[in-house]
Design a protein that fits this description.
four-stranded antiparallel beta sheet, 20 helices, globular, alpha+beta, Growth Hormone, Chain: A, seven-stranded antiparallel beta sheet, about 600 residues, 11 strands
């Protein structure tokens, strides 16, 4: 965690965000307390939560807005606008002005949605992949720590100074955040127009989640977990009243115990995610929440406190991992839409579970409801754990800040290492392949268009830095039985002469590099040369979506001198674990649509 604070820009960002989090924590309860003091109505006070939540329904629209601008300037403007939106609260005098509080609460929800999405994108621009989990965990630690005493401090300030004074403090914290972020030194390329229809642009986040295996699996698992986790909102009062026979105010003690666990989870989450991979870390967090609810069912205070600490620990690990997976598996120009789409997909089930818990807690034994939460969270954890290989662990002890170099590497070669631009391609690779694949002799699908999902693969670097090389696995999920295809591809800045017309998969407009010609790698001499180098042990396979990061899951069995030999690509992949021991074979993995991991032979060496 110390490594991320060595970056001056992150220190500024952290200071600004910490200030705004203080203001948010102070104002968290004040909206509802203010309405209650003006109207005397519990129902009117409860409506505040609804107004804050309503903007989340339109979250994808907010994500689309975020993606149209550079993230740092957007955050500066958003924080300034958030400070201004609080000013109408100075006009609140009596019950007739409650509508002002509701309006500001709704605007606060809009601010929360857009700032969170833009922050995710800014962190992705600012930090190397191996520092993202640490940064997210650090911010989550501060957020959870402030929740321990922030709302109570806000209530005390309201009682002493009034609601307008608390709003003024929060506005100042937004201004501090805007100034700190404005002072950051960070170059961001302006987003390039995608040329897509407005509806396609709006739903691009959802489409990316559907086609990116790690995101899809994580979102489904989290939705399963959130379909039960909201039950805890109401059950906690039954635990206090029926299990411990304490007054309702004792809920605050349990909430503090959860906060302690959450702080610990934030401090540990980054290291855990790097050590086991983000999906595995999220699964561990989900399992911890399930175990926590099982402990809370025992009506003994020490066990319940242990359960709350465990639950807080698991929740922070889960949230940190969730955010990090989105950042690492989403191109920069899509980060806002993917973040908000994922938030929408999991908030729906959570809302259902909150409502169900409120209705059931008065008619069912609270221990039964806790058992439901435990079963649901453990089911979600198991479902995600089975796909943990989709996010490989990152090496502990990263290279020095500001350098991506690795020991022993020739710096002249490093200067030619491919850099992964997190941007858009129009049309996408999957769209091009959906048209190109059915025309190939080795295609085994039917007459209709395939329903392709990106399922795996890796990259190779061109020493001359001219050709992008990717071996991509796509799965046709629309076939009667899913079929995995391996497509080696070469990305070029100009047309390749002397190859058959069918070798061209298509052309695409790259958001940074411009027009790209994409060729079937079997016909691209640079791609085939690098494949031969890989089979001779002279090239290092690289992670598919991360710059300058070797992929240890790609294995060559029996390094072969391939002079006078052919490299044969297995176009239709089959899981063949037993074949890994044979010489002259390139073995790697992919993921089926149900999340099951598979490994098989990608290429073999054969004499001419």
């Amino acid at each position: 965690m110390r490594a991320v604070f060595r970056i001056p820009a992150f220190r500024l960002l952290f200071a600004g965000l910490a200030a705004s989090m203080v203001g948010d924590a102070l104002l968290m309860l004040v909206y509802a307390i203010w309405v209650k003091s003006l109207t005397g109505s519990n129902g009117a006070a409860g409506l505040v939560t609804l107004f804050i939540a309503v903007p989340y329904v339109l979250a994808p629209l907010g994500g689309w807005l975020v993606d149209r601008f550079r993230h740092r300037p957007f955050l500066v403007v958003a924080n300034l606008a958030s400070a201004l939106m609080l000013l109408p609260l100075f006009a609140v005098r009596d019950a007739a002005d409650v509508w002002i509080i509701y309006t500001v609460a709704a605007l606060y929800g809009v601010s929360s949605v857009t700032i969170a999405a833009a922050l995710s994108g800014l962190l992705k621009e600012l930090l190397a992949d191996d520092l993202l989990a640490d940064a997210n965990g650090t911010l989550q630690t501060v957020r959870e720590g402030l929740r321990l005493g922030g709302p109570l401090a806000g209530a005390a300030l309201f009682a002493a100074l009034g609601g307008a004074a608390v709003a003024a403090i929060d506005a100042v914290t937004f201004l501090v955040a805007a100034v700190a972020i404005a002072r950051m030194r960070l170059h961001e390329e302006p987003p390039a127009p995608s040329g897509l229809h407005w509806l396609s642009e709006l739903t691009a986040g959802l489409s990316h989640i559907r086609t990116e295996a790690a995101l899809r699996r994580m979102t489904i698992a989290t939705a399963i977990g959130f379909l039960v986790i909201g039950i805890n909102e109401s059950v906690l009062f039954a635990v206090v009243g029926q299990g411990l026979h304490r007054p309702a105010a004792f809920v605050g003690v349990l909430a503090s115990a959860q906060g302690v666990g959450a702080i610990a989870g934030g401090l540990w989450a980054g290291r855990l995610a790097r050590g086991v991979g983000e999906l595995a870390a999220i699964a561990i967090g989900m399992a911890a929440i399930g175990v926590a609810d099982a402990l809370i069912a025992f009506p003994w205070l020490p066990v319940i406190l242990l359960g709350k600490v465990t639950g807080g620990l698991g929740l922070t690990i889960m949230i940190t991992g969730f955010t990090t997976v989105i950042q690492r598996h989403t191109p920069g120009p899509l980060i806002g839409r993917v973040s908000t789409a994922a938030e929408t997909l999991i908030s729906g089930p959570q809302t259902i579970s909150i409502a169900a818990g409120a209705a059931l807690v008065s008619v069912a034994d609270y221990r039964l409801l806790l058992a439901v939460v435990t079963i649901g969270m453990l089911t979600a954890a198991a479902y995600l754990w089975l796909a943990r290989r989709l996010t490989a662990p990152l090496p502990l002890g990263p290279a020095p800040i500001g350098s991506r170099s690795q020991p022993g590497r020739d710096t002249r070669e490093e200067a030619r290492m491919a850099f992964i631009h997190h941007t858009t391609m129009t049309p996408t690779k999957l769209e091009l392949l959906a048209e190109w694949l059915p025309a190939q002799s080795w295609y085994v699908g039917g007459a209709g268009s395939p329903e392709l999902l990106k399922a795996g693969g890796f990259r190779l670097d061109d020493p001359e830095g001219e050709v992008g090389i990717e071996l991509m696995v796509v799965v046709d999920a629309g076939a009667r039985e899913p079929v995995a295809y391996l497509v080696p591809m070469g990305y070029r800045g100009a047309a390749l002469e002397g190859v058959p017309g069918a070798a061209l998969i298509g052309t695409s407009e790259h958001g940074v590099l411009g027009k790209r010609w994409i060729y079937d790698g079997v016909h691209d001499p640079v791609v085939t040369a690098r494949l031969r180098a890989l089979l001779r042990g002279e090239a290092v396979p690289q992670r598919q979506s991360v710059s300058d990061t070797p992929d240890p899951t790609v294995v060559v069995h029996g390094i072969s001198p391939v002079d006078g030999s052919d490299v044969r690509i297995n176009r239709v992949l089959r899981a063949e674990e037993a074949a890994e021991g044979a010489p002259g074979r390139l073995v790697a993995g992919w993921t089926w649509p149900d999340g099951a991991a598979a490994r098989g032979v990608f290429a073999t060496v054969a004499q001419r």
